[in-house]
Specification:
The chain contains 8 helices and 15 strands. It is α+β, with helices and mostly antiparallel strands. The strands form 6 sheets. Strands 10-11-15-14 form a 4-stranded mixed beta sheet. It has a 3-stranded mixed beta sheet with strand order 1-9-8. Strands 2-7 form a two-stranded antiparallel sheet. The protein is elongated, with a radius of gyration of 31 Å. The structure holds zinc ion (2 copies). The site of one zinc ion has 8 residues, from loops.
Length: 368
Protein backbone atom coordinates (compact mmCIF):
# COMPACT_ATOMS: atom_id res chain seq x y z
CA UNK A 1 0.00 0.00 0.00
CA UNK A 2 1.17 3.49 -0.74
CA UNK A 3 2.29 5.77 2.04
CA UNK A 4 -0.32 8.48 1.73
CA UNK A 5 1.54 10.77 4.07
CA UNK A 6 4.62 10.76 1.90
CA UNK A 7 2.46 11.18 -1.22
CA UNK A 8 1.24 14.45 0.27
CA UNK A 9 4.63 15.22 1.85
CA UNK A 10 3.23 15.66 5.33
CA UNK A 11 4.02 14.04 8.66
CA UNK A 12 1.75 11.50 10.29
CA UNK A 13 0.81 14.12 12.86
CA UNK A 14 -0.23 16.66 10.23
CA UNK A 15 -3.39 18.60 11.04
CA UNK A 16 -6.46 18.60 8.80
CA UNK A 17 -5.46 22.07 7.68
CA UNK A 18 -1.89 20.97 6.81
CA UNK A 19 -3.26 18.09 4.77
CA UNK A 20 -5.64 20.33 2.91
CA UNK A 21 -2.89 22.83 2.17
CA UNK A 22 -0.47 20.17 0.95
CA UNK A 23 -3.21 18.70 -1.20
CA UNK A 24 -4.13 22.02 -2.80
CA UNK A 25 -0.53 22.71 -3.66
CA UNK A 26 0.10 19.28 -5.20
CA UNK A 27 -3.23 19.05 -6.97
CA UNK A 28 -2.43 22.41 -8.51
CA UNK A 29 1.05 21.30 -9.51
CA UNK A 30 0.01 17.99 -11.08
CA UNK A 31 -3.34 18.93 -12.56
CA UNK A 32 -3.37 17.31 -16.00
CA UNK A 33 -4.62 20.47 -17.69
CA UNK A 34 -1.55 22.40 -16.56
CA UNK A 35 1.77 22.56 -18.34
CA UNK A 36 3.97 20.01 -16.60
CA UNK A 37 0.90 18.30 -15.16
CA UNK A 38 0.95 14.61 -14.43
CA UNK A 39 -2.25 12.64 -14.47
CA UNK A 40 -1.03 9.64 -12.52
CA UNK A 41 0.54 11.83 -9.84
CA UNK A 42 -2.66 13.83 -9.71
CA UNK A 43 -4.70 10.71 -9.14
CA UNK A 44 -2.28 9.49 -6.50
CA UNK A 45 -2.52 12.80 -4.67
CA UNK A 46 -6.30 12.64 -4.84
CA UNK A 47 -6.37 9.13 -3.51
CA UNK A 48 -4.15 10.11 -0.58
CA UNK A 49 -6.30 13.13 0.12
CA UNK A 50 -9.54 11.16 0.05
CA UNK A 51 -8.22 8.97 2.80
CA UNK A 52 -6.32 11.44 4.94
CA UNK A 53 -8.95 14.18 4.82
CA UNK A 54 -11.59 11.87 6.24
CA UNK A 55 -11.29 11.25 9.95
CA UNK A 56 -12.59 7.70 9.87
CA UNK A 57 -10.62 6.64 6.85
CA UNK A 58 -7.49 8.25 8.18
CA UNK A 59 -7.70 6.44 11.50
CA UNK A 60 -8.38 3.19 9.70
CA UNK A 61 -5.39 3.81 7.48
CA UNK A 62 -3.25 4.72 10.49
CA UNK A 63 -4.22 1.56 12.27
CA UNK A 64 -3.57 -0.82 9.42
CA UNK A 65 -0.79 1.30 8.05
CA UNK A 66 1.37 0.98 5.00
CA UNK A 67 2.45 -2.42 6.22
CA UNK A 68 -1.06 -3.74 5.71
CA UNK A 69 -2.22 -5.90 2.86
CA UNK A 70 -2.26 -4.32 -0.58
CA UNK A 71 -5.16 -2.87 -2.44
CA UNK A 72 -6.06 0.18 -0.42
CA UNK A 73 -7.11 -0.49 3.09
CA UNK A 74 -7.79 -4.16 3.49
CA UNK A 75 -6.91 -4.89 7.07
CA UNK A 76 -4.46 -7.74 7.53
CA UNK A 77 -6.12 -11.08 7.77
CA UNK A 78 -9.13 -10.08 5.72
CA UNK A 79 -7.81 -11.59 2.55
CA UNK A 80 -10.04 -14.54 3.25
CA UNK A 81 -12.99 -12.55 2.01
CA UNK A 82 -11.94 -13.14 -1.54
CA UNK A 83 -12.86 -16.71 -0.85
CA UNK A 84 -16.56 -15.97 -1.10
CA UNK A 85 -17.77 -17.16 -4.42
CA UNK A 86 -21.35 -16.01 -4.47
CA UNK A 87 -22.50 -12.75 -5.98
CA UNK A 88 -19.58 -10.50 -5.33
CA UNK A 89 -19.52 -10.96 -1.59
CA UNK A 90 -16.18 -9.44 -0.99
CA UNK A 91 -14.70 -6.45 0.61
CA UNK A 92 -13.04 -4.67 -2.25
CA UNK A 93 -11.15 -2.30 -0.02
CA UNK A 94 -12.24 0.74 -1.96
CA UNK A 95 -13.02 3.95 -0.27
CA UNK A 96 -15.88 5.96 -1.66
CA UNK A 97 -15.21 9.17 -3.53
CA UNK A 98 -17.63 11.17 -1.46
CA UNK A 99 -16.88 13.92 1.01
CA UNK A 100 -14.48 16.05 -0.89
CA UNK A 101 -16.00 19.14 0.56
CA UNK A 102 -15.06 22.44 -0.95
CA UNK A 103 -12.44 20.78 -3.12
CA UNK A 104 -15.00 18.93 -5.15
CA UNK A 105 -14.58 21.52 -7.89
CA UNK A 106 -11.33 19.97 -8.94
CA UNK A 107 -12.97 16.66 -9.47
CA UNK A 108 -15.87 18.06 -11.32
CA UNK A 109 -13.51 19.73 -13.73
CA UNK A 110 -11.24 16.82 -14.21
CA UNK A 111 -13.45 13.80 -13.82
CA UNK A 112 -17.03 14.97 -13.72
CA UNK A 113 -16.56 17.47 -16.52
CA UNK A 114 -15.14 14.93 -18.88
CA UNK A 115 -17.68 12.39 -17.90
CA UNK A 116 -20.46 14.87 -18.54
CA UNK A 117 -19.18 15.53 -22.02
CA UNK A 118 -18.80 11.88 -22.79
CA UNK A 119 -21.96 10.40 -21.39
CA UNK A 120 -25.00 11.98 -19.93
CA UNK A 121 -24.70 11.73 -16.21
CA UNK A 122 -27.21 9.79 -14.24
CA UNK A 123 -28.21 10.15 -10.65
CA UNK A 124 -25.89 9.02 -7.96
CA UNK A 125 -26.53 5.47 -6.92
CA UNK A 126 -28.20 4.65 -3.63
CA UNK A 127 -26.35 4.67 -0.33
CA UNK A 128 -24.57 1.74 1.17
CA UNK A 129 -26.12 0.37 4.31
CA UNK A 130 -24.75 -1.60 7.20
CA UNK A 131 -26.57 -4.15 9.27
CA UNK A 132 -25.44 -6.45 12.03
CA UNK A 133 -26.00 -10.20 12.03
CA UNK A 134 -25.60 -11.91 15.36
CA UNK A 135 -24.59 -15.56 15.33
CA UNK A 136 -23.53 -18.08 17.96
CA UNK A 137 -20.06 -19.54 18.28
CA UNK A 138 -21.46 -22.84 17.12
CA UNK A 139 -22.81 -21.20 13.98
CA UNK A 140 -19.43 -19.57 13.43
CA UNK A 141 -17.88 -23.00 13.86
CA UNK A 142 -20.06 -24.71 11.28
CA UNK A 143 -20.77 -21.81 8.95
CA UNK A 144 -24.31 -21.01 7.90
CA UNK A 145 -26.47 -19.32 5.39
CA UNK A 146 -28.53 -16.63 7.01
CA UNK A 147 -31.49 -14.71 5.66
CA UNK A 148 -31.54 -11.09 6.72
CA UNK A 149 -34.58 -8.85 6.72
CA UNK A 150 -34.19 -5.11 6.66
CA UNK A 151 -35.97 -2.00 5.54
CA UNK A 152 -34.54 0.13 2.78
CA UNK A 153 -35.32 2.02 -0.39
CA UNK A 154 -36.20 -0.28 -3.24
CA UNK A 155 -37.08 0.48 -6.82
CA UNK A 156 -40.68 1.62 -7.25
CA UNK A 157 -42.53 -1.26 -8.86
CA UNK A 158 -45.25 0.98 -10.26
CA UNK A 159 -42.97 3.03 -12.50
CA UNK A 160 -39.98 0.65 -12.58
CA UNK A 161 -37.81 3.38 -11.11
CA UNK A 162 -38.65 5.97 -13.76
CA UNK A 163 -40.35 8.32 -11.32
CA UNK A 164 -43.16 9.23 -13.72
CA UNK A 165 -46.24 7.80 -15.34
CA UNK A 166 -44.96 6.29 -18.53
CA UNK A 167 -48.37 6.40 -20.19
CA UNK A 168 -48.52 10.18 -19.77
CA UNK A 169 -45.24 10.62 -21.63
CA UNK A 170 -42.59 13.30 -21.38
CA UNK A 171 -41.89 16.68 -22.89
CA UNK A 172 -38.74 18.50 -23.90
CA UNK A 173 -36.87 20.11 -21.03
CA UNK A 174 -37.17 23.89 -21.20
CA UNK A 175 -34.01 24.63 -19.26
CA UNK A 176 -31.57 22.83 -21.54
CA UNK A 177 -33.76 22.78 -24.69
CA UNK A 178 -33.62 19.02 -24.63
CA UNK A 179 -29.84 18.77 -24.73
CA UNK A 180 -29.66 17.31 -21.24
CA UNK A 181 -26.55 19.28 -20.43
CA UNK A 182 -25.54 22.80 -19.61
CA UNK A 183 -22.27 24.53 -20.47
CA UNK A 184 -20.83 26.95 -18.00
CA UNK A 185 -17.60 28.84 -17.62
CA UNK A 186 -16.14 28.77 -14.18
CA UNK A 187 -13.31 30.67 -12.62
CA UNK A 188 -11.28 28.55 -10.20
CA UNK A 189 -7.82 28.72 -8.77
CA UNK A 190 -6.61 26.69 -11.72
CA UNK A 191 -7.83 29.30 -14.16
CA UNK A 192 -10.93 29.42 -16.31
CA UNK A 193 -12.68 26.23 -17.27
CA UNK A 194 -15.51 25.46 -19.57
CA UNK A 195 -17.64 22.96 -17.82
CA UNK A 196 -20.34 20.71 -19.10
CA UNK A 197 -22.72 19.43 -16.49
CA UNK A 198 -26.00 17.64 -16.37
CA UNK A 199 -29.11 19.77 -16.59
CA UNK A 200 -30.51 20.06 -13.07
CA UNK A 201 -34.12 20.10 -14.26
CA UNK A 202 -34.14 16.96 -16.38
CA UNK A 203 -31.08 15.34 -14.80
CA UNK A 204 -29.47 14.84 -18.17
CA UNK A 205 -32.43 13.22 -19.84
CA UNK A 206 -33.39 16.19 -22.00
CA UNK A 207 -37.00 15.30 -21.27
CA UNK A 208 -39.18 15.99 -18.28
CA UNK A 209 -42.20 13.91 -17.31
CA UNK A 210 -45.74 15.15 -17.79
CA UNK A 211 -46.87 13.44 -14.62
CA UNK A 212 -44.94 12.20 -11.63
CA UNK A 213 -45.44 8.66 -10.38
CA UNK A 214 -47.97 8.71 -7.54
CA UNK A 215 -46.52 5.71 -5.79
CA UNK A 216 -43.02 7.08 -5.28
CA UNK A 217 -43.81 10.80 -5.58
CA UNK A 218 -41.47 11.01 -8.52
CA UNK A 219 -38.35 9.60 -6.91
CA UNK A 220 -38.47 6.17 -8.50
CA UNK A 221 -38.02 4.43 -5.17
CA UNK A 222 -40.05 3.46 -2.14
CA UNK A 223 -39.25 2.18 1.35
CA UNK A 224 -39.69 -1.56 1.47
CA UNK A 225 -38.84 -4.61 3.49
CA UNK A 226 -36.00 -6.44 1.80
CA UNK A 227 -34.43 -9.80 2.21
CA UNK A 228 -30.86 -10.87 1.59
CA UNK A 229 -29.24 -14.22 2.01
CA UNK A 230 -25.69 -14.19 3.26
CA UNK A 231 -23.34 -17.14 3.26
CA UNK A 232 -21.19 -17.14 6.36
CA UNK A 233 -18.13 -19.34 6.05
CA UNK A 234 -16.93 -21.50 8.94
CA UNK A 235 -14.45 -19.74 11.21
CA UNK A 236 -15.79 -16.24 10.70
CA UNK A 237 -14.64 -13.88 13.42
CA UNK A 238 -16.55 -11.33 15.39
CA UNK A 239 -16.64 -8.01 13.55
CA UNK A 240 -15.89 -9.34 10.09
CA UNK A 241 -17.80 -7.69 7.30
CA UNK A 242 -19.43 -9.31 4.31
CA UNK A 243 -20.39 -7.17 1.37
CA UNK A 244 -23.49 -7.91 -0.66
CA UNK A 245 -23.18 -5.84 -3.78
CA UNK A 246 -26.39 -4.13 -4.86
CA UNK A 247 -28.33 -4.92 -1.68
CA UNK A 248 -28.13 -1.39 -0.31
CA UNK A 249 -30.52 1.51 -0.90
CA UNK A 250 -31.94 1.84 -4.38
CA UNK A 251 -30.90 5.12 -5.98
CA UNK A 252 -33.36 7.67 -7.28
CA UNK A 253 -34.86 7.13 -10.69
CA UNK A 254 -33.54 3.62 -11.10
CA UNK A 255 -29.94 4.75 -10.80
CA UNK A 256 -28.61 1.62 -9.18
CA UNK A 257 -28.40 0.41 -5.64
CA UNK A 258 -25.73 0.81 -3.03
CA UNK A 259 -24.20 -2.15 -1.28
CA UNK A 260 -25.10 -3.91 1.91
CA UNK A 261 -22.38 -4.46 4.49
CA UNK A 262 -23.17 -7.19 6.95
CA UNK A 263 -21.19 -6.93 10.17
CA UNK A 264 -21.07 -10.38 11.72
CA UNK A 265 -21.21 -10.40 15.50
CA UNK A 266 -20.31 -13.66 17.16
CA UNK A 267 -21.94 -13.89 20.58
CA UNK A 268 -19.44 -14.59 23.35
CA UNK A 269 -19.90 -17.79 25.33
CA UNK A 270 -19.04 -18.69 28.90
CA UNK A 271 -17.48 -21.97 27.83
CA UNK A 272 -14.88 -20.74 25.39
CA UNK A 273 -12.55 -17.84 25.03
CA UNK A 274 -11.63 -17.31 21.43
CA UNK A 275 -8.35 -16.03 20.04
CA UNK A 276 -8.65 -16.04 16.25
CA UNK A 277 -8.83 -19.73 15.37
CA UNK A 278 -7.71 -20.89 18.80
CA UNK A 279 -10.04 -21.67 21.67
CA UNK A 280 -9.41 -21.72 25.38
CA UNK A 281 -11.64 -23.68 27.70
CA UNK A 282 -11.66 -24.87 31.30
CA UNK A 283 -12.13 -28.41 32.55
CA UNK A 284 -12.47 -29.83 36.03
CA UNK A 285 -10.15 -32.73 36.76
CA UNK A 286 -9.65 -34.90 39.84
CA UNK A 287 -6.28 -35.78 41.32
CA UNK A 288 -6.82 -39.39 40.33
CA UNK A 289 -7.58 -38.50 36.71
CA UNK A 290 -4.48 -36.37 36.59
CA UNK A 291 -2.24 -39.03 38.10
CA UNK A 292 -3.70 -42.02 36.29
CA UNK A 293 -3.34 -40.37 32.90
CA UNK A 294 -6.79 -41.51 31.81
CA UNK A 295 -8.39 -40.23 28.65
CA UNK A 296 -10.51 -37.17 29.26
CA UNK A 297 -13.71 -36.66 27.31
CA UNK A 298 -14.00 -33.27 25.60
CA UNK A 299 -16.44 -31.73 23.12
CA UNK A 300 -15.94 -29.62 20.05
CA UNK A 301 -18.00 -26.45 19.75
CA UNK A 302 -20.53 -28.42 17.69
CA UNK A 303 -20.73 -31.19 20.29
CA UNK A 304 -18.45 -33.73 18.62
CA UNK A 305 -16.89 -35.91 21.32
CA UNK A 306 -13.19 -36.62 21.43
CA UNK A 307 -10.69 -37.93 23.94
CA UNK A 308 -7.64 -36.19 25.25
CA UNK A 309 -4.81 -37.91 27.09
CA UNK A 310 -2.88 -36.01 29.66
CA UNK A 311 0.82 -36.65 29.05
CA UNK A 312 3.09 -37.87 31.87
CA UNK A 313 4.87 -35.12 33.72
CA UNK A 314 2.17 -32.62 32.73
CA UNK A 315 2.19 -29.41 34.74
CA UNK A 316 -1.42 -28.80 35.66
CA UNK A 317 -0.85 -25.09 35.92
CA UNK A 318 -0.19 -24.91 32.21
CA UNK A 319 -2.88 -25.17 29.56
CA UNK A 320 -2.87 -28.40 27.60
CA UNK A 321 -2.67 -27.75 23.89
CA UNK A 322 -4.80 -29.99 21.68
CA UNK A 323 -3.70 -29.41 18.12
CA UNK A 324 -6.42 -28.94 15.51
CA UNK A 325 -9.37 -28.84 17.93
CA UNK A 326 -10.00 -25.09 17.77
CA UNK A 327 -12.16 -23.13 15.31
CA UNK A 328 -11.91 -23.70 11.58
CA UNK A 329 -9.49 -21.29 9.98
CA UNK A 330 -11.57 -18.71 8.17
CA UNK A 331 -11.31 -18.84 4.41
CA UNK A 332 -9.18 -21.97 4.32
CA UNK A 333 -11.96 -24.14 2.89
CA UNK A 334 -10.13 -27.19 4.07
CA UNK A 335 -12.15 -28.70 6.87
CA UNK A 336 -9.00 -30.10 8.39
CA UNK A 337 -7.48 -26.67 8.90
CA UNK A 338 -8.36 -25.68 12.41
CA UNK A 339 -6.80 -23.74 15.21
CA UNK A 340 -5.86 -25.33 18.51
CA UNK A 341 -7.72 -25.91 21.73
CA UNK A 342 -6.12 -25.00 25.03
CA UNK A 343 -7.52 -26.70 28.10
CA UNK A 344 -7.00 -25.12 31.49
CA UNK A 345 -7.56 -27.69 34.19
CA UNK A 346 -9.16 -26.93 37.50
CA UNK A 347 -7.83 -29.45 39.93
CA UNK A 348 -10.73 -30.62 42.09
CA UNK A 349 -9.61 -31.46 45.58
CA UNK A 350 -12.06 -33.45 47.69
CA UNK A 351 -13.81 -31.52 50.47
CA UNK A 352 -13.28 -34.30 52.97
CA UNK A 353 -11.04 -37.34 52.81
CA UNK A 354 -12.11 -40.65 54.35
CA UNK A 355 -9.65 -42.50 56.52
CA UNK A 356 -9.36 -45.15 53.81
CA UNK A 357 -8.57 -42.57 51.18
CA UNK A 358 -6.12 -40.93 53.51
CA UNK A 359 -4.27 -44.20 53.94
CA UNK A 360 -4.22 -44.76 50.18
CA UNK A 361 -2.89 -41.28 49.57
CA UNK A 362 -0.18 -41.73 52.12
CA UNK A 363 0.84 -44.99 50.47
CA UNK A 364 0.74 -43.27 47.10
CA UNK A 365 2.91 -40.46 48.33
CA UNK A 366 5.54 -42.93 49.49
CA UNK A 367 5.34 -44.80 46.21
CA UNK A 368 5.99 -41.79 44.00
ZN1 LIG B 1 -32.89 19.78 -19.03
ZN1 LIG C 1 -42.87 5.23 -8.96
Amino acid sequence: MKDYYSVLGVSREASEEDIKKAYRKLAHQFHPDKAGGNESKFKEVNEAYQVLSNKDKRSQYDRFGSAGAGGGGVPPGWEGFSGFGAQGQQWNGNFGAEDLGDLSDIFEQFFGGQAAARARPTYTRGSDIEIHAEITLEEAFKGLSKTLHYQTYAECAHCAGLGYEKSKGTKKCAKCQGKGEIREERQTFFGKFAQVRACPDCHGRGEVPNEKCHECKGTGRVVKQREAKVEIAPGIEDGQIIKLAGYGEAGEFGSGSGDLYVVVRVKPTAKYERRKADLITEKDISIAELLLGNDITMHDVDGTVFQVRIPGGFNVREALKVTGRGMPRFGSFSSSSRGDLYIRFNLKTPKSVSSKAKKLLEDLDKEI
